[in-house]
Design goal:
By secondary structure, this protein is mainly α. The chain contains 5 helices and 2 strands, in the order H-H-H-H-H-E-E. The protein has one domain: 434 Repressor (Amino-terminal Domain). It has a two-stranded antiparallel ribbon. The longest helix is centred in the N-terminal third of the chain and has 14 residues.
Length: 82
């Protein structure tokens, strides 16, 4: 998984929930600057503790943050972990 994909996934879910970065950081009890760095791909490997806090605040599992949908040759989609 590319370094920015976790951040993109977090941003996507956060926006669907109508949360600002500041609101999510507060809800996840992580520094605002850390969330920005993760979303922008500047933190390559966020700690599992940080991912757990973000996932809990977003109402998803850590697995959901780490799993992405990929296009397979035949046009179908399957889940692929990093």
């Amino acid at each position: 998984m590319e370094k920015q994909e976790i951040g993109k996934k977090i941003r996507e879910i956060r926006k669907k929930l109508g949360l600002t970065q500041e609101q999510l950081a507060q809800k996840a009890e992580i520094p605002y600057a850390t969330l920005i760095k993760i979303e922008n791909g500047h933190v390559v490997n966020p700690t599992i503790n940080t991912l757990q806090k973000i996932a809990l605040a977003l109402g998803v599992t850590v697995d959901e943050l780490l799993v992405k949908l990929i296009n397979v040759k035949h046009g179908t989609k399957e889940k692929s972990a990093i």
